[in-house]
Amino acid sequence: MASDANGIPELDQDKYDADEQVKIICLGDSAVGKSKLMERFLIDGYRPQQLSTYALTLYKYNTTIDRKAVLVDFWDTAGQERFQSMHPSYYHKAHACIMVFDVQRKITYKNLTSWYTELREYRPEIPCVVVANKIDADMKVTQRNFNFAKKQGLPLYFVSAADGTNVVKMFKETIKMAMSYKQNSSDFMDEVMRELENFELEQNKDLSLQTAQEGLKPESPESV
Ligand SMILES: Nc1nc2c(ncn2[C@@H]2O[C@H](COP(=O)(O)OP(=O)(O)O)[C@@H](O)[C@H]2O)c(=O)[nH]1
Ligand SMILES: [Mg+2]
After folding, report:
1. Which CATH architecture does the domain made up of 2-195 adopt?
2. Intervals of the chain under pLDDT 50
3. If you take atom 19 of ligand 1, which residue's CA is the nearest one?
4. Is the CB of 36 under 6 A from ligand 1?
5. CA separation for the pair 115, 112 (Å, rounded)
């Protein structure tokens, strides 16, 4: 699952540099309902693309934001989350993250901490939303405090992939966040690294210029 992905166009991640394309990833334990949420959102004619060799499924979604056509690629796992960790290329160039837990299984809520730590290792800046799924099973959970989101300063959505509650709202808001992140940050760390490289190049150039000039310098009278 390398980023050049042996010439498979779907996995050419350079396309995410284009203004009108965003990549949104989905994280969370197995069976919390990640795939069901995608399917619910894209219920009208979604076309998931199973790339099982690469342990992921891509869902494509076309939309319009501020009168501009935007193509969203949703990346969903295809089982790799069982190992409690995703391949780095899953995170590569992602513009937003949807982190899901199952309100009926406490452990999936606890595990958000490690998913979030891994996400921040690779993508320290991208917007991330926390999604409490399966509220249809017990509406009372919406009264409970899920402090993880508050503590991290992340938006929290109570949703149900089964009956559709809040699903469209959550996805649409996440897409907006992804777009605005892309437009405003232009990968801050990438930029810092580029600046540093340029700085070093300039310095080296100055140095070699200086050395060259020193070599050309006529001998000073003192040295005669
Ligand atoms: N009651 C209920 N069950 C759900 C909901 N979303 C998913 N499920 C069930 O949870 C199981 C795992 O869902 P899936 O989307 O495959 O989870 P994933 O492994 O995170 O992709 C399936 O049996 C779904 O039918 C929901 O909102 N409510
Ligand atoms: Mg799944």
Report:
1. 3-Layer(aba) Sandwich (3.40)
2. 1-4, 45, 223-224
3. 31
4. yes
5. 5
Tokens of 211: 């050395």
Q: Of 54, 167, 31, whose CA–CA distance to 105 is shortest? A: 31
Contacts 24+ apart (CB under 8 A), 152-156: 152/116, 152/128, 154/99, 154/128, 154/129, 154/130, 155/129, 155/130, 156/129, 156/130, 156/131, 156/132
Distance 60 CA to ligand 1 centre (A): 20
* Ligand in nearest proximity to the CA of 55: 2
Q: What is the DSSP letter of 54?
A: G
Alpha-carbon 181 to chain mean position: 10
**Strand ranges (E), the chain:** 21-27, 49-51, 56-65, 68-77, 96-102, 128-133, 156-158
| Closest ligand 1 atom, residue 163 Cα | 27
Torsion from C-alpha of 110, 111, 113, 114, nearest 10 degrees: 150
DSSP H or E segment with residue 29: none
CA neighbor of 23 nearest in space, from 152, 126, 111: 126
Q: Which of 30, 36, 103, 111 to mutate to test the pocket of ligand 1 (most atoms within 8 A of CB)?
A: 36
pLDDT tens, 131-187?
999 999 999 999 998 999 999 999 999 999 999 999 999 999 999 999 999 988 755
